[in-house]
């Protein structure tokens, strides 16, 4: 594992240095091709220039990687307008399929023990660490950052994921508890996941912001339909590959790319979506979505200015939790008057 | 089809003995499996939208045989199913009732009571469903029991063991006997369990065998095996009923059962019906869906068309 990462890292540095055109997806293979010289600058005489293998970015729905049902794609560019890749432009039917997948996954994921969810999410962080260089590159391209700053973003993102993984089996102690009541009852409150949550990822922070809104939703046992940043969806689509190769069950996270407004409208109106996080919506859109969401009394988290580098607190977790309170008789009190 | 179309009289002769029956069934043209599947798949690509979709959904709802065939069926569950068959969507009374409820024989009386006065029929599986491995007398007693309890329709299973062993006349005689036990009171649906017949040729032979024996409906499967109704085997059976009517003038219904869960699937089957046998069969007297979860999806799609918002399982009954 580390050997392969190291190779990819070296090859990547080489390709960055020469500013070779095209994508960097082939970087990991560079050293395996004998026709390429050690520093990866030029092929040996006689061999034609190597054709780079472009990656087809796809949606992530129900643990599978489908193209958009509509067959549409759109061009994704870096911050300077250079073409990076074509991303699928999902349609409302893809959104519908994603909700069905999320609903199907909800029982298993919300029923898993909090400890188990924590383990699974930590595993995602492990996988992210292994793909660190890919994400550094994608974040640098998407947000126009230097490699060093992009690396800082990715590190913060992985740490954010670990932070939320740790919260899975602790949030109940913080937000639940035994309530004192005026009667011989145990009265216990415990937080329960809301259900299927539609998440509009922040438009500007394509990776740190994305994870900062996604991780709290699934850490508490909800399942998510994530609409990636419209302008910079590639880190989100690559995150889907990480989720697919860790232990997160298919359907727990579904990733859609495309027009945020186009996808958000059917999700906000969808009767089987229980909550929506409007982080990626502008003011006007957020208002419309909030109106649409009122129809089945969805929980709505309004967009708010967030410093994604700061330690987040529990707000994003509690936003998608519902409190279940159980009353239980303590039984007859002993003759001695002893009580529980 | 045989090139020289036999007359009705000639068809009467084919059941005279085991050998004539075998000669007839094996004389049926072989099925082009690749062509059949391609045809079924290409008809499945039709895009049915807006008003046509609304019509298709309502038609499909009216064709559902709402089924519960579990060992754990209780009178309460059957009553709930009956109520749902009569009024599938309590929030929208314009939704049509289903065609029938389908239950085990001992639940017929309960079901009958639950749908009384609504026009919804009660169908009962019989003849040692689903395996059909019992003596003829036992099977007939099963049928008489269901009919006596008031079943409007009887779904029998053929003896697949006898069919696969080539004892066609035995299968034929059994269907005839069951038909007789139904009397005039109940329509007979004959289940072939296509998933166990292993070849398309066998499905075509079974279809003709069932129709010759007097089936009112031919039905793909019990829903209890791995492969149930598929577009291809249903298309094949639709072709059989079309050809049978062309030769004898007798119209026979078709019922795909098992594995049809979404509105999209159901609409594909309706396209098959329309393109193969035409409008004469687009009626719940001649075409049915044997299904349980399909109805909820049809209702959710119906709600989507009415409101413009995607619906969810919270808005239909859990059954």
UniProtKB/TrEMBL annotation, chain B:
The keyword Secreted does not apply. It comes from the Bacteria. Its EC number is 4.1.2.4. InterPro entries: Aldolase_TIM, DeoC, DeoC/FbaB/LacD_aldolase. Belongs to the DeoC/FbaB aldolase family. DeoC type 2 subfamily. NCBIfam families: deoC. This is Deoxyribose-phosphate aldolase. It comes from Streptomyces longwoodensis.
